[in-house]
Write a structure and sequence with these properties.
- The longest helix is centred in the middle third of the chain and has 13 residues.
- A 3-stranded parallel beta sheet has the order 1-2-3.
- By secondary structure, the protein is α/β, with parallel strands linked by helices.
- The protein has 2 helices and 3 strands.
- The model has no long low-confidence stretch (mean pLDDT 88).
Amino acid sequence: MELFDSHCHLDDKKFDEDRYELIQNIFSSGVTSFITAGYSLYSSKKALELAKRYPQIYTTCGISPNDINEKVENIR
C-alpha cells in the first residue's frame, strides 16, 4: 500500500532550516508522495519550487484570506 499525504505546508517559512531533511524523513517513513499547499504568494512560489525539484511532490497554489494583503515585495 502506498501512502499519499493530501495536504501539508512544507513550503512554510518555519521549515526553511530543515525542509530537505524533513522531506527525506517523510519519504523514509513510507509516504510516497504528497501535496504541499501554498497559502500566500511566498508559500505558493516555494511550493512550486518543491514540486519542480521532486517528482513525487505536487502542489496547489492559492492565497488564504489571512494573507490576501501580502505585498508583492514580500515574495522577492
